[in-house]
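Why predict the complex rather than its parts? Because the way molecules touch one another can change local conformation, and only a joint prediction can capture that. The input here totals 408 residues.
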Amino acid sequence: MALALTQKQQAVLDFLKSEHRKTGLIPSTREIQAHFGFASQTAAMSHLRALERKEAVIRIPGKARAVMFPDEMDREEIVDIPVYGSIAAGMGEDQVQDQESCVSIDISSLGVRGNAKTFALKVRGESMIDAHICDGDTVILEFREPRKGDVVAALIDGETTLKRYVVEKGKPYLQAENELYPDLIPARELIIQGVMVALLRNSC
Amino acid sequence: MALALTQKQQAVLDFLKSEHRKTGLIPSTREIQAHFGFASQTAAMSHLRALERKEAVIRIPGKARAVMFPDEMDREEIVDIPVYGSIAAGMGEDQVQDQESCVSIDISSLGVRGNAKTFALKVRGESMIDAHICDGDTVILEFREPRKGDVVAALIDGETTLKRYVVEKGKPYLQAENELYPDLIPARELIIQGVMVALLRNSC
DNA sequence: TGTTCTTCCGAACCAATGTTCAAAACATGG
DNA sequence: CCATGTTTTGAACATTGGTTCGGAAGAACA
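Output of the joint prediction:
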């Protein structure tokens, strides 16, 4: 089906994809021409046509910058989730602090609505090991009210820690999931920063 | 900084983003005009200008379809990973079977090279629970030679299962990570389908 | 109540861009 | 060796699409 590309054709495709990723736009024929130092736009044109014939791209005749990548079409919506090493005491509404990196992932794999406010934390320590959340894991959290049994990020003594949100006799508590941490902290008056919705682990 | 958008402006922005996600292209002023039923392109133009002024988009004057979304720029490269419920015996090179869904995620969060061949499996059962891999987790695997200590997907009795790849006295074995499964299967002559590189869990 | 912002019309202008044609050098495989 | 596909030149053409100007009605705000 998908015919093999020549080196030049691959280079042109890489350029298109790279620009599209960086700017969101497809280069025009003249921009392709300039990038590769062609003396004629026809060089760019024939490469585009070759890519189209080999089904590497889909084009809409006549339209400007109308090159589409079949494998990137109809993708789920992708959200960019900031990853914090820790969250300091303040945590003002949109106060960005200690942001280390960013995870981009489609919302259906994440299981959240597109408008949900999400952030991620690098897990430190083994306090939730019995819930199979390990040191170094990235936990993705949503900003909402916790429900019984949720894993939540809470601000305790100026530090953000993961705990299980449990309710006993109508009163909410926070509980570690590790026999060595028999904590059971009243959840009232503690600041719940988010509810865990997903987890990402890297085995490298 | 980012000023609030009106309903109309939000609708235009949503249309731009939706089209960009579906096709990879930004609608032209005339396409915006047609979609909203405007009688003049100036309506589309003024909305674009409003979005630009409120820093919801960045535009390049004079260029065709040159609207960029600040939050989507300079994103890491994103790969689409097919998720299989199971892998049947065949697993011919590019034989797509039982593909249930697709995970789109940036490669740096995944920790793989862009050209690596990756796929994902829904975990069934608790055989790797001591490695904190749970039933229902999605394991992302790379197609490469296993190294000592890697978690691998192997084809055993026509079924794909996750095991730890261990080497004892120079001989490779496969080992479950659950006391109830004291298996130690010679790895030779077994088909290693992939090496685990990441894990994705949904808490919904 | 005036000012600013939003939203829209209609027509026209012109730059950006896709497209075509005729040609040619070069590789590749049957 | 010939047919086919690749890669490139140079100039011109036609369309797409961004932009402008003048005007206007309504909402929001002070």
